């Protein structure tokens, strides 16, 4: 399994060869792009889009154009997420989650799934040469199985895809329900990517994932003093040395039979 550090600092791609995970918007705002030293993957930023607007504000064509610029300027990425539609109840119904207000789409889980599959098909049609991955969306296990059927009916065999994103589980990936969803979908022979996985989730189901990404290091750092010698900032929530040290500690703390695979990159 590949373990990507999630960050909004685009210049980190030229500072470390450890796998990184970044939103496309962090590159599109840049006049010049840093060349990547190691491997990286690109997130579409769907959670933020749907949170703020209740819809996608970028067209598939605009997103593909952004991805091509990243590919050419930063270097080939492992894969990019599609413009999928998350299925958390708060994304659909709207409301308050911490300090952030969700607009709410007002649509059903089934419609979110239909739009997710339709977007993937459109993106692959617009850019068959780019590694844009399919994502399974849902809330209950039966929802995810319905989404799998939608791909099958569209002629997409997810068992032949090098990576299949697993959406709407990041806030419950360490729960019994989340673990059951990962276990069931992995049994279909899918090479799953777990979005936003934390330590407990990795401990439980990391062995069933092809890859995962995490921003948990930043939250961890935000509630602790800065590292010794880091006098220019109050904490290390945006600090590469802290992120790398956190990554090493997390991987070392996983079951011994996972470690050689997890830190292979």
Describe the structure.
- It is a single chain.
- The protein is of the alpha/beta class and 265 residues long.
- It contains eleven helices and nine strands.
- It has helices spanning 25-28, 46-53, 60-73, 89-93, 109-126, 141-153, 176-186, 199-205, 216-222, 240-253, 259-262, and strands at 2-6, 20-23, 40-43, 95-97, 100-102, 135-136, 164-166, 192-194, 211-214.
- A seven-stranded parallel β-sheet has the order 3-2-1-9-8-7-6. A two-stranded antiparallel sheet has the order 4-5.
- The longest helix has 18 residues, at 109-126.
The CATH superfamily appears as Queuine tRNA-ribosyltransferase-like
| General form | globular
Give me the secondary-structure category.
alpha/beta
In the CATH scheme, what's the topology name?
TIM Barrel
Q: Radius of gyration from the CA trace?
A: 18 Å
The biggest beta sheet is recorded as: 7 strands, parallel
Q: Care to count the β-strands?
A: 9
Report the mean per-residue pLDDT as an integer. Answer: 92
Number of helical segments? 11
Oligomer: single chain
Spans where pLDDT lies below 50 across 5 or more residues: none
CATH architecture: Alpha-Beta Barrel
Domain tally: 1
What are the defining features of this structure?
alpha/beta, 265 residues, seven-stranded parallel β-sheet, single chain, 12% strand, TIM Barrel, globular
How are the secondary structure elements laid out?
Blueprint (H helix, E strand, L loop, with lengths): L1 E5 L13 E4 L1 H4 L11 E4 L2 H8 L6 H14 L15 H5 L1 E3 L2 E3 L6 H18 L8 E2 L4 H13 L10 E3 L9 H11 L5 E3 L4 H7 L5 E4 L1 H7 L17 H14 L5 H4 L3
Parallel strand pairs: 1-2, 1-9, 2-3, 6-7, 7-8, 8-9
Antiparallel strand pairs: 4-5
Helix pairs in contact: 5-6
Pfam family, one: DpdA
Protein name: DeoxyPurine in DNA protein A domain-containing protein
Organism: Streptomyces xantholiticus
